[in-house]
Fold these 2 entries.
Entry 1:
Amino acid sequence: MRIDLHAHSNVSDGTETPADVMASAARAGLDVVALTDHDSTDGWTEGSLAAIDNGVALVPGMEVSCRTEKGISVHLLSYLHDPAHPGLLEEITKAKYARLTRAERMVTLLSEDFPLTWDDVIHRVAPGATLGRPHIADALVAAGVVADRSEAFTSILTSHSRYFVQHYAPDPATAVELVRAAGGVPVFAHPVASARGRIVGESTYRDMIDAGLAGLEIDHRDNPEEGREFLRRLADRHGLLVTGSSDYHGTGKPNLLGENLTTPDMLARIEEMATGTLVVRG
Ligand code: AMP
Ligand code: FE
Ligand code: FE
Ligand code: ZN
């Protein structure tokens, strides 16, 4: 069984439609794939139909953007939650709107130094998609300012850049509680991805575990080996489940479907724990 529990479509910052992600998953030889768009479940319906057509099982999911009180960015994967749960829905809706004004502010700042307009950014984004820095990066690529998203993220769009603007995001422990309340299974995404920015310390893990954290995404290309050892010990100590995933974004990132996998027993534990919705199997 080849199981990849982290992939994005153009409902957020992936480059393929949800249906195309399912087709790509089948082509990559996956048996199971999770669709985990940032702060949105809008791809679930299209993804479910295409999963059945392509003979792959779909784990409906989401990746919630969070921020600690120290300002450190945390991504929380949610699997099999009820997408209509009011508390969780309210938080992600707030974040989605905040992302819109934040992107506009970043574009205003960038337009002072680069040939970039708001129109350039939104005309290539799918309607209703969760807007992020990757979409601004795409417009900068089209304008010839950078070669690709990766170059944009190591130069103009880093969190230290003078063009960077924050957006509203819930605290990670609050997000864990909301995912649980919605019947979902909360898993800390790429927890030690130090190249992306500052990483959290012991107290954040403690708060998230106390709030009901279920697992850690350990096998992910952005987690350095030293960090993985720390995460394995933490998972052992607290009985957390562990996952491995690609974090596929279509052509938006080099990450390939199936480059990291999750074991069938871990998926079984996720399904046992969840009460919000079911895995889609054709
Ligand atoms: P935002 O949530 O808008 O602040 O943007 C962060 C998003 O950018 C994350 O979802 C990542 O998937 C994406 N991202 C981060 N680093 C890179 C990179 N080097 N290349 C492409 N996308 C990236
Ligand atoms: Fe992303
Ligand atoms: Fe992430
Ligand atoms: Zn992701």
Entry 2:
Amino acid sequence: MAYSLPDLPYDYNALEPHIDEATMRVHHDKHHQTYIDKVNAALEGTQWADAPIEDVLKDLGSLPSDKQTAVRNNGGGHYNHTLLWQWMSPDAGGQPDGALAQAIESAFGSFDDFKTKFKDTGANQFGSGWSVLVHTGSGLDVVGCPNQDSPISNGQTPLLGVDVWEHAYYLKYQNRRPDYIEAFFNVINWRKVAELFDAAG
Ligand code: MN
């Protein structure tokens, strides 16, 4: 069963004004679909074609060497964007509470210190990539990932990521990547982040 594009869990315009409708349409319908088409083509006819994408990305080294780059890039793109649509939500933003809030304070000092590190990591990611809050197994950290690399390939669990590829923000924010990341905080679905945190802990 080849991978298929998940529906957005909200309307294309639901994240306005922070994330614009035109960006959501091309990002979801075109960019994500292309990652899926390419990873499906790479894995077609192999024993990995029916595996959950998480499992494939956790063990990239087991793939034939001529498949690894295509799967790392396009399988990673499929996995990252499947999470991204869930990491955002209308009527979201604010701050987490409970055990997740405590873990963030423990790791970074305060929510604001976490936000600064997450924003700076995204703003300073050279070229395309992601800034990702991860569970390392012992606590939380923020890591910068180039291209479509996922921390899951390094044994870490992604809890929240912001896409800093230009396709994620250029229509509305042009070169103002820090403004886009600031706006992203208004649509963070902390309920989903908490769910991933609870599952990882
Ligand atoms: Mn993207």
